[in-house]
Amino acid sequence: MVKKICGIGAGYVGGPTMAVIALKCPSIEVAVVDISHPRISAWNSDKLPIYEPGLEQIIQQCRGKNLLFSTDVEKHVFEADIIFVNVNTPTKTGGRGAGKAADLTYWESAARMIADVSRSNKIVVEKSTVPVRTAEVIEKILVHNSNGKVEYQILSNPEFLSEGTSIQDLLNPDRVLIGGNDSLKGQEAIQKLKAIYANWVPEDRIITTNVWSAELSKLADNAFLAQRISSINAMSALCESTVSGKKVAVLGFSFKKDTSDTRKTPAIDVCKGLLGDNACLSIYDPRVSEEQIRRDLSMNEIPWDNSVMVEAMRFDGTKQVSVYEDVYEATKNAHGICVLTEWDEFKEIDYQRVFDSMEKPAFVFDGRNVLDVHKLREIGFIVYSIGKPLKQWQSY
């Protein structure tokens, strides 16, 4: 019987996933662990480190009961029956496979730590996106570092979450995929994890298979999601003329609406490109903090779940960037507006008021196709929107 679960990694997958398990399995103690003290402190505060609709209510309901957040990683790994590994697996930036292959450094480090502290048999669950056959590598690390004293069963249980709807995706998933070994003990491990999800997921939605098939399914899912337009390429029209010294209002900084996640957001590349041309940016996002925005614009790309690296690096922000809590202040005296996140509130802005406060000619770049282009042009804006034609007279 499963009594304790430990989730390694308190990020955008680990935090919400473990919180929902705690909500639906009140008899199981769920510990979310991370080496980042600021991150864990935020999870234990009234201001959570991430925003997802519905997450705050679940945390308030479960935290202090059967859900806890801790930096004592080894203690909770030692006590757990099942360990979910939710660490980041970024694309390699150097060496063989750079720009294509996944960097498993943090996964392997987690596996070695698990082997070092474990004294009882464990079920280790892959939640991270990993290459096919990664479980075999992890199993070898666990076995060889535990001197045969502990038995491990490796399961693949990939997440299929969309940021902004992750809580609903967890509460009402269209499928839960569990891959395990074909051995008797492997099948027993699958049934233990299946029993946890069965507390709220209909049995016909819980699919069991072998490990490598589950790993492959996640990669295939990501391949479909990767087909998207790159916003920075569409910025060329706006940047044909120099933007040096001009104020550009950036509306939206998160990866997508209804989330505070900025990992891989196109806003970072767009903003850095404009800053490289000496533009002055005024940024507004309803959920992303000023601290996060300045950190993203000041750092080179780093693996966001590597907490040690994040805490060790210092940043001074950028002098050309201002962050506002009011959209009308952000757009005041701007030469152009870039909509980089599809927040619903951007559709409700009084654009006549915005136009009246801007320098002329006033430009709008709609990088998400969420605005009424016809209405904006009637007001007087020069509008660039992905996939929509420009008027011939717009030859600025």
From TrEMBL:
Keyword Oxidoreductase: yes
SMART domains in alphabetical order: UDPG_MGDP_dh_C
Residues that coordinate or bind NAD(+): 34, 39, 89, 129, 163
Enzyme Commission no: 1.1.1.22
Gene Ontology BP terms: glycosaminoglycan biosynthetic process; polysaccharide biosynthetic process
SUPFAM superfamilies in alphabetical order: 6-phosphogluconate dehydrogenase C-terminal domain-like, NAD(P)-binding Rossmann-fold domains, UDP-glucose/GDP-mannose dehydrogenase C-terminal domain
Amino acids binding substrate: 160-163, 218
GO MF terms held by the record: NAD binding; UDP-glucose 6-dehydrogenase activity
Family the entry assigns: Belongs to the UDP-glucose/GDP-mannose dehydrogenase family.
PANTHER family assigned: UDP-GLUCOSE 6-DEHYDROGENASE (PTHR11374:SF3), UDP-GLUCOSE DEHYDROGENASE/UDP-MANNAC DEHYDROGENASE (PTHR11374)
Protein name from the UniProt record: UDP-glucose 6-dehydrogenase
